[in-house]
From TrEMBL:
This is GNAT family N-acetyltransferase. Pfam families: Acetyltransf_3. Residues 15-160 form the N-acetyltransferase domain. The lineage of its organism: Bacteria, Bacillati, Bacillota, Clostridia, Eubacteriales. Gene3D superfamilies: 3.40.630.30. SUPFAM superfamilies: Acyl-CoA N-acyltransferases (Nat).
Amino acid sequence: MERLLLKPRTLEHVKIFWEKSQDQEIERMFPFNKGTLNDAIKLYEETLKPDAKSFGKVINIDNKYIGDVWCYGIDEAAEKQAFVSIIIFDKTYWGKGIGKDALKQFSKLVFERYAVSRLCAFTYKDNKRSIATLESAGFKKLEEFKENGIISCYYELLEL
């Protein structure tokens, strides 16, 4: 049985994640910001500030770093929501339910840490694994839309 732990992100994780996320298959499947390594480092540094509007953890299996889960656009005042993303860049761990377990753990942590009542997520309609992960973690699809020629889905998870 593999042991899943969500651990704090470090600068070294940011560098590894940026490198691993340059993979064409990952870029095609996940709607995330593409930028330079310096851009990624600046975003990470923003998460370290006391008033940060983003927060993340790394996904470790048996002490091996395999991906990230994070929230961004944290709004504790007006909308009471945050957006969540998860990427497992180590493809040997795809399709094993690890994303679902990591997302469930992380969602619980976000609801405990921030005054938000819902988590929001986007994924491409063609990304069946991402959809299965979101739905198995309790997210509900609320909308489909087309952006830049790609059909995407919008999901929400309400705090219980």
